[in-house]
Automatic annotation (TrEMBL):
Lineage top rank: taxon: Bacteria
Matches recorded under HAMAP family: 16SrRNA_methyltr_G
E.C. no: 2.1.1.-
Keyword terms of this UniProt record: Cytoplasm, Methyltransferase, rRNA processing, S-adenosyl-L-methionine, Transferase
Family assignment from sequence similarity: Belongs to the methyltransferase superfamily. RNA methyltransferase RsmG family.
Protein name: Ribosomal RNA small subunit methyltransferase G
Gene Ontology MF: a single term: methyltransferase activity
Biased composition (Gly residues): 294-304
Residues the entry annotates as binding S-adenosyl-L-methionine: G101, L106, A153, E154, R208
Organism: Plantactinospora endophytica
Length: 304
């Protein structure tokens, strides 16, 4: 493999969009291990070739741009794609999804591949990640069902509250008479240019490896419709987090969190998901962060 289009492995984006037709010289093949063929077929069905292309984009440009660690490449199928796709069983047909903190597209892009019936908004504040996401959406032709928004979850929630009768929103790029301009292909949408038909708040809010449960609930529950659900993909600490943060989640308007296992009998290990139903409007997120000792509005271990 030669890295002909790469400016450096340190994380700066190479110029130009991702290749739509992936070539052997810029994008490494990411073989699907034999023992994962059956689970992958079960979870992706006829969209498995699209999942394979996404695996290559993660392992190629995703690694070169510093969005995913090089040591993840051999684990892309099980630890990332299948782990995320296993969440689909908790999502009813035709649902709207907001994926908070999508990073390189996990789980949002994976769900869009596995479930073309879903309408998905990917929310990612970091510009180079949001640009990568928009380019992936373009390369995989997912634009009909996926919107990439460069914003923080709490900013999006505030802007939707304002749009629903609070403060007037500032004029969009299109001015006072027209609607927002559509984002250019391969570019994320900015908060000031939200499409009029954006399905936010959504039926389901997903998040993986973004923040502890109390902070996550503060950011995500306002992005769910009443009766909608937060599905937080968690690791081994899920039960501890539930025990620690259940009271804060309740004050934020959430139900008692429940730990579920997705993909049982299909993926090993199954995907651990904490599910919270939005039961009512809760107290503002900053209150929850203070009570649990978190930084107000801080980002969990990540750059802004
Ligand atoms: C550790 S990464 C996880 C990325 C991806 N979900 C995954 O599982 O690989 C956390 C992501 O959350 C994003 N993030 C942090 N604070 C956020 C906020 N307030 N709203 C939305 N995204 C946020 C970061 O920019 C980063 O991309």
């Amino acid at each position: 493999m030669t890295n002909r289009s790469v400016s450096g492995p340190g994380g700066e984006s190479p110029p130009g969009p991702l290749p739509v037709h992936v070539g052997q010289d810029t994008v490494p093949a990411v073989p699907l291990p034999a023992e994962l063929v059956e689970p992958a077929r079960t979870l992706f069905a006829d969209r498995l070739p699209l999942a394979a292309t996404y695996a290559e984009l993660l392992a190629g440009p995703g690694v070169l741009r510093g969005l995913i660690g090089p040591r993840e490449t051999p684990r892309i199928w099980d630890r990332h794609l299948l782990n995320c796709a296993a969440v689909a069983e908790f999502i009813p047909t035709g649902s709207s999804i907001v994926d908070v903190g999508s990073g390189a597209g996990l789980p949002g892009i994976v769900l869009a591949i596995a479930r073309p019936d879903l309408t998905i908004t990917l929310v990612e504040p970091l510009a180079r990640r949001a640009v990568f996401l928009a380019e992936v959406v373009d390369a995989l032709d997912l634009g009909e069902t996926v919107t990439v928004l460069r914003a923080r979850a709490e900013e999006l929630a505030a802007s939707r509250r304002e749009g629903a009768g609070g403060r007037r929103r500032r004029p969009t790029r299109a001015g006072r008479t027209g609607g927002p301009l559509p984002a250019a292909p391969g570019a994320p949408v900015e908060l000031a240019d939200l499409p009029a038909d954006l399905r936010v708040p959504a039926d389901i809010v997903t998040a993986r490896a973004v923040a502890p449960l109390d902070r996550l609930a503060g950011w995500c529950l306002p992005l769910a419709v009443p009766g909608g659900r937060l599905l937080a993909l968690k690791g081994a600490s899920a039960a501890d987090e539930v025990a620690e943060h259940a009271e804060v989640v309740r004050r934020l308007g959430g139900s008692a969190p429940v730990v579920r296992q997705g993909g049982r009998g299909v993926v090993d290990p199954p995907t651990t998901v904490v599910e919270v139903v939005r039961e009512r409007a809760g107290r503002p997120a900053a209150t929850a962060s203070r009570t649990s000792g978190g930084r107000r509005g801080g980002t969990p271990g990540g750059p802004r």
